[in-house]
Amino acid sequence: MLENRKLDSTGETSNRQRIPSISGIHGDIPMGSQRMEMRKRQTTGQQEASSAAQAPPDAANRGPNACCFCWCCCCSCSWNEEGNERNRRASYETKTEGTTDCDQRPLPTLEEVRCWGQSFDKLMKCPAGRGAFQEFLQTEFSEENMLFWLACEDLRKETNKSTMEEKARLIYEDYVSILSPKEVSLDSRVREVINRNMQEPTAHAFDDAQLQIYTLMQRDSYPRYVNSAAYKTLLKTVSEQNPEA
């Protein structure tokens, strides 16, 4: 019994001696939480380091408004390109349309005006005749036919390769493309020819199309012009200014 008690007491004593170690283990919990906190900090630090490594090399050098600056630069470049395109197109259209300016073309004689009513070819060879005919086409909403023909004439005179290619591209966009409001009426065969020619544009890329539009104006618009009040008024005005004719 004494031995058992001793054992029990020893066991109790040993158990009691273990209690501090158990409480010591529980007492290590704050150290565990500290380790967890340290791990969190290490993980956060690793994530930040990883993010910094994945960032673009020049990200650190960018200011707070870097995106705005880049956007402005891109917009400026795009705006400049569009502005240059508009200037080139405006200059080209001025050259083609300016040939029919009333202030620049010479005053026709009575004989010339009479010839216009007899021959479409003579009318088209005369700057004043083309101008008067173009004014009539405006009333019929078909001025693009004359503008296209004049643009082709201008292209055929061009000798500079880069300028010629640029003019050919503008002619296609303005008068051949189905997206253009000034598209002229061309059959499928002529369009196929143009598409092939545009792979390597030359000064004669639109010859077939120019002839087709010329024929269209001759057969369709020209007879109406000769019988129009505009032509008769012009003929009367010129005859009054030149009574001796």
UniProtKB/TrEMBL annotation:
SUPFAM superfamilies associated with the record: Regulator of G-protein signaling, RGS
Polar residues: compositionally biased ranges: 10-20
Pfam families with a match to the protein in the record: RGS (PF00615)
InterPro entries: RGS, RGS_sf, RGS_subdomain_2
PANTHER family named in the record: REGULATOR OF G PROTEIN SIGNALING, REGULATOR OF G-PROTEIN SIGNALING 20
Name this polypeptide is given: RGS domain-containing protein
Domain annotation RGS: ranges: 119-235
Organism: Megalops atlanticus
Region Disordered, annotated ranges: 1-57
Compositional bias segments (type: Low complexity): 46-57
